[in-house]
Amino acid sequence: MSDVLHHETLLGGDKCSFILPRHHALTLVAGGPRSAVALLAFRAGRTHERYNMPDSLKAQHTAFLSAGRVLLSDMGRVLLSVTNDSCGWHDTISGHMSAASALAKYGECTYQQERNAMVRNSRDNLLIELGKWELTERDLHANLNAFVKIAADAEGNLAWHPNAAAGQRLTLRAELDTLVILSNTPHPFDPWTDYAPDSVELSIARVPPPGPDDPCRTKRSENARAFQLSESVIA
């Protein structure tokens, strides 16, 4: 991407939140196989409108997100489009780790014991970032898990599949000003028994607006209608 405005490293356990303006893109680059980023998305300034996982999957006939797909809001608008993806599968259905789950998996590891190497979990991280925008636990919704692949077998059992690798990229373009909340913390299904999440590189850049032949717009007829709804509120 050209015209990069911001770049930082999101260390394992870190969290952040920011407004991603329309016609800007967020790129996440995995640091290794243990990169897993829980993501929430809200329409900036109108946070009652937020990413709707069921509608996004139903409209696009998929169970995961990858290039050419979009994150729909509960108002039927496109918040974010997946414009670049070298990973191929980003989990939408298996949620995030809580403090209780982290304690059961890793044991007690507090700040008083380990300082910045303490165990952090996605739920607490997301709640801290929500609070910075005057949002609360009631605003938690089904999150996207970047770089994570969880698939079902013939009996419907969900399982972890190795997916992330160092250098894999995911780019999300904002179609409306979007509040993005991120937590770089282990996924509840990951197979490692120790706490050592890989870092993730984060950058934000200006990008051109999507044209009529944009792959995210043309992927499905439902996507085209959602783009029209998004563009109607800022026309």
Q: Can you describe this structure?
A:
The protein is of the alpha+beta class and 235 residues long. The protein has one domain. The chain is built from six helices and 14 strands. The protein has helices spanning 53-60, 99-106, 111-114, 122-131, 215-218, 221-232; strands at residues 4-10, 15-20, 24-30, 37-43, 64-65, 70-72, 78-85, 90-91, 144-146, 149-152, 158-161, 169-174, 178-184, 200-206. It has a six-stranded antiparallel sheet. It is globular and about 55 Å long. The protein starts with a strand and ends with a helix.
Task: Kindly list the characteristics that best describe this protein.
6 helices; alpha+beta; single chain; globular
In the residues, how many domains can be counted? 1
- Number of helical segments with 4 or more residues: 6
Q: Main β-sheet: number of strands, strand sense, barrel status?
A: 6 strands, antiparallel
Listing every helix as H and every strand as E from the N terminus to the C terminus, the arrangement reads EEEEHEEEEHHHEEEEEEHH
Mean pLDDT across every amino acid position: 94
Provide the spatial order of strands within the biggest beta sheet: 1-14-3-12-7-6
Low-confidence stretches: none
Number of strands: 14
| Shape summary | globular
Portion of residues within helices: 10-25%
